[in-house]
Write a structure and sequence with these properties.
The chain is an alpha/beta fold and 251 residues long. Helices cover 31% and strands 18% of the residues. Bound molecules: iron/sulfur cluster.
Length: 251
């Protein structure tokens, strides 16, 4: 049986200062380069694994099958170590974290300019934190007027529209979960896309709404819109889910 390397370790400020804050190497976000965008985001430890709850609307199932528990993170201890250090810095020294984030974003912007790419920013790769989104928006407010590189900020979120803070230049897709009520589903699908994880293949429609694949790329600001379901494939622990989080239409 493969060893689980996803548990955080004890971390000090000296450790944390060694971390990089921005990620551009996740397999899914790499798909966006063929569409002309460089995607960058931040991998923090989800929910309260780093000591502060960064996913206020997480559910028992999403905490168990979170993307944190898929891919390289389960194989290499160094991936969790980097997320632990980054989260420690974010929680305990947000001003240092933000200044490093902004420096890394400037560097990525220069890369986009050189290569003639747009810059797609997905702040919460493995968290659901508005504090992190605000750091990205502050940077974008400073640079947007001084660059011709298109910059878009987007996320998947479990925070219902009615409970959240969602400025216009932040595109969000609501993530369906096992505790999503009919009321919350309809309230969200009327004003933005809803993403759902499917066990086997994608249907043409879900709950009466058209379904499009979210697998070809991750650039949700290009295709997410009210009344559209974004279909995501089950990965990792999601294959064992029986809570209703993963939709299995063959049952
Ligand atoms: S809200 Fe998202 S990032 Fe947080 S635990 Fe759930 S699936 Fe993971």
């Amino acid at each position: 049986m493969r060893e689980d390397n996803s548990s955080p370790e004890i971390c000090t400020l000296d450790d944390a200062l060694q971390c990089t804050v921005l990620t551009k190497q996740n397999a899914k976000i790499l798909k966006s380069t063929k569409e002309g965008w460089i995607t960058a985001g931040v991998h923090l430890l989800p929910n309260d694994l780093g000591g502060t709850n960064l996913c206020p609307y997480s559910t028992p199932t999403c905490r168990h099958i979170c993307l944190h528990y898929t891919g390289r993170n389960m194989i290499f201890k160094r991936v969790t170590r980097a997320r632990t250090r980054r989260t420690f810095l974010f929680n305990t020294h947000p001003e240092i974290f933000e200044s490093r984030l902004h420096a890394a974003l400037y560097e990525t912007l220069r890369e986009c300019k050189r290569k003639n790419f747009g810059l797609a920013l997905r702040p919460n790769l493995t968290s659901d934190s508005h504090k992190l989104v605000k750091m990205f928006l502050r940077w974008k407010d400073n640079v947007s007027e001084h660059t011709e590189v298109p910059i878009r900020i987007y996320d998947y979120t479990k925070i219902p529209k009615a409970q959240g803070w969602f400025p216009e230049d932040y595109v969000t897709v609501y993530s369906w979960g096992e505790l999503t009520t009919e009321e919350v589903f309809y309230e969200n699908i009327e004003c933005r896309s809803v993403a759902a994880v499917f066990a086997k293949g994608f249907p043409d429609r879900f709950k009466g709404y058209p379904v499009i694949s979210g697998e070809d790329h991750d650039l949700r600001f290009l295709d997410a819109r009210p009344g559209v379901i974004i279909a995501i494939k089950a990965r990792g622990r999601a294959f064992q889910d029986t809570s209703g989080f993963v939709v299995d239409l063959t049952e």
